[in-house]
Amino acid sequence: MKKQMAACIGLVCTGLMAPLAQATTTLTVYSALEADQVKDYKEAFEKANPDIELRFVRESTGVITAKLLSEKNNPQADVVWGLAATSLMILDQQGMLQGYVPKGVEKLNREFVDKAHPPKWTGMDVWAATICFNTVEAAKKGLPKPESWADLTKPVYKGQIVMPHPASSGTGYLDVSAWLQMMGEKKGWDYMDKLHVNMAQYVHSGSKPCKMAAAGEYPIGISFEYRGAELKEKGAPIDLVYPKEGLGWDLEATAILKGSKNLAAAKKLADFSVSLPAMQLYEKNYAVVAMPGVAKQNPYIPTDYAKRLSKNNFAWAAKNREAILQEWSRRYESKAAPKN
């Protein structure tokens, strides 16, 4: 039987499945992975586990987190593969995660693994804030290249910036959380008030602002490093700016949902998620991965990238997420893009 090509219809993604005659278990996987990553990750797992077929349900971080919480009393997912650690901490607070020690987890950086015994989640990779700056469009408009978060509040940038909506996008939330942590809450909200004046739109995807900047729709898009480096490598006229105050960031991570009817298969996915083959897949997309010694230097990402990450209290970001999003929406929702 020929393998089927990847496709996404609504929330549900299928792709490159092992022959159906071999698959004995269908594992439902919720994910905020980028759509173009799902195909490769799914294919690699199913090749190593031909008796398991993965059924991906993917969307942006905020949508997947809300969906999981809404299904708390009737879980539909077996496992989460690729969701912000701060989101998984919220699920854990609700008693929704199954503790498990994946085979080989001891090879990971301990900072990438939940401190509980057994851990409720295990890290995959880091993604962090980056400003995508279209040099061609900026030159047409006489815009200087920003070097800091503070620069983005200058009047010259009014109406020239797009960023992810923090309720929809994990990238948007890591920005907001980082500003509040770096600057303190009062100065952080004051900063976002000034940034809002210059904001053209808050969009519902972490990668979209960089895509919009690359296409020349807006000269400045607040996004994350992987998408920026990928677009630049493909020839987009963008520079990647890593603001000097520090980069907000989060971990992508894996977790098993409590009550999974396919626990044995879910554990196999958790095992695979921390394996060297999986880390080599993550490394194609990210500059920092959970297993030391795997990541290779990307020419478009600074060699000291890891040192530029801001101090991040994940527990604080998870505990205060709902209150922060409510306050953010009260202040800034007027510029939110329509949801598709």
From TrEMBL:
> Which domain of life, per UniProt?
Bacteria
* Gene Ontology biological process terms from the UniProt entry: thiamine transport
**Regions annotated as coiled coil:** none
Range of residues in the leader sequence: 1-23
One Gene Ontology cellular component annotation held by this UniProt entry: outer membrane-bounded periplasmic space
Key words, A-Z: Iron, Metal-binding, Signal
Q: Which residues bind Fe cation?
A: 226
Q: Which Gene3D superfamilies match?
A: Periplasmic binding protein-like II (3.40.190.10)
Named from the GO MF annotations, one term is: thiamine binding
Pfam families membership: SBP_bac_6
Q: Which PANTHER family match?
A: ABC TRANSPORTER SUBSTRATE-BINDING PROTEIN (PTHR30006:SF2), THIAMINE-BINDING PERIPLASMIC PROTEIN-RELATED (PTHR30006)
Q: Could you identify this protein by its name?
A: Iron(III) transport system substrate-binding protein
